TrEMBL record:
SMART domains the record matches: AAA
Superkingdom of source: Bacteria
Natural source organism: Georgenia deserti
UniProt-recorded name of the protein: ArsA family ATPase
InterPro entries according to UniProt: AAA+_ATPase, ArsA/GET3_ATPase-like, ATPase_ArsA/GET3, P-loop_NTPase
SUPFAM superfamilies reported for this sequence: P-loop containing nucleoside triphosphate hydrolases (SSF52540)
Domain spans labelled AAA+ ATPase: 7-236
Pfam family, one: ArsA_ATPase
Length: 351
């Protein structure tokens, strides 16, 4: 089921709270797809990266091969929020300093400092990087698997193009009062990521130049970024190309959080393709059997509230999901869960 979901698509996102097995599940899907011959990029946007821990190798902010997989290819990438933000800010600062009169240099630095701590700066930088990463990966890879942050930023990403339209219009109105900041702004192209940094400084500068053509240029600059995010949103909202799975464990709080996340994603126009109940206890001995019954109750609750969303169960493995061997074991369990006829599935699925 999970592997079929991934097989027909270009993007698969794994969401859910921390510690439930997002990275493990994302890794196993990516590995299984690469093993089946596809070129796969596994991207982590979770600031608490653990692709590297799980694969037992240094991954970091560059495409890194994760495993030998025969015909396919598997590479990993951890988007580093701090570095991404710093790079954005450094580029913006350099560009602005180049085009601003010397006496405004202090002003520029102050804006950059404010932007660094502004709420949402890191997240905006990550979303921008993710949009860019997926866009370019679509040309070179068959599948992008995204291990998302537990913060629910995917739902926000879906709303970002609209937010940006309102924001663009607001900035254009304020821009009527801007002169030199406006000029500097236009020269930031093609790296328009920093335009929001100058929003609060323009009032200091007198208006000059032709308002009409300046507005046109600025509008183009601002809409380019918005269009890229809108393109990504359309891709993510297209259930034919993108699958979103929520990973959880069958306990009371994670189940309640899953219902909330599902509602949030649905409101944002993202269909949830499957609920992946990870670490299902085996029916072995009274202690684990009791745990399993509790889990079954939670899964029933989930099914009652979300009857249309398929539920996939993955077994608790004996050891951690660690290294290629661990990932392969979880991938095999997914294969078994996909095939209701297999013996291994029979003792894992509830009747
Ligand atoms: N099916 C499983 N069986 C056994 N251990 C698992 C399973 N799935 C995940 N784990 C372990 O649970 C821990 C958390 O998993 P991880 O994928 O890092 O979660 P997340 O990315 O959601 O924070 C890790 O130690 C991992 O090895
Ligand atoms: Mg993780």
């Amino acid at each position: 089921m999970l592997l079929n979901l991934a097989a027909g698509r270009r993007v698969l996102l794994a969401g859910g709270k921390g510690g439930v097995g997002k990275t493990s599940v994302a890794s196993a899907v990516a590995y299984a797809q690469a093993r089946a011959g596809r070129r796969v990029l596994l991207v982590s946007t979770d600031p608490a990266h653990n692709l590297g821990h799980l694969w037992e190798r240094t991954v970091g902010d560059r495409r890194t091969p994760l495993a030998e997989v025969g015909a396919g290819r598997l590479e990993g990438l951890e988007i580093d929020p701090v570095r991404t933000t710093e790079e954005h800010l450094a580029a913006v600062r350099a560009t602005m300093r180049r085009y601003m009169p010397e006496h405004l240099a202090g002003e520029v630095d102050r804006h950059i400092e404010l932007a660094r701590d502004a709420p949402g700066t890191h997240e905006a930088a990550i979303l921008d990087r993710l949009a860019e990463t997926i866009e370019s990966a679509l040309a070179t890879d068959d599948l992008v698997v995204v291990d998302t942050a537990p913060s629910g930023h995917t739902a926000r990403l879906m709303r970002l193009p609209e937010t940006m339209s309102a924001w663009t219009e607001g900035l254009l109105r304020r821009q009527h009062r801007s002169g030199r900041f406006g000029r500097a702004l236009r020269r930031l192209a093609p790296d328009d990521a920093g335009v929001d940094l100058v929003g609060s400084g323009e009032r200091k500068v007198a208006e000059e130049g032709s308002r009409g053509s300046r507005d046109e240029e600025l509008r183009r600059l601002l809409t380019r970024r918005r269009d890229r995010l809108a393109g990504l949103r359309d891709l993510l909202a297209d259930a034919g190309r993108t699958a979103f799975v929520i990973v959880l464990v069958a306990e009371r709080v994670p189940v309640l959080e899953t219902l909330e996340l599902h509602a949030d994603l649905t409101r944002s126009g993202l269909a949830v393709s499957a609920l992946v109940v990870n670490r299902r206890s085996p029916d072995a001995g009274p202690f684990l059997a009791a745990r399993r019954r509790g889990e079954t109750g939670q899964i029933d609750h989930l099914r009652r509230h979300l009857p249309a969303v398929p539920v996939v169960e993955l077994p608790l493995l004996e050891g951690d999901v660690l290294g290629v061997g661990g990932v392969a074991r979880l991938a095999d369990a997914m294969g078994a869960a996909a095939d209701p006829g297999s013996d291994r599935t029979a003792d894992r699925l509830d009747p």
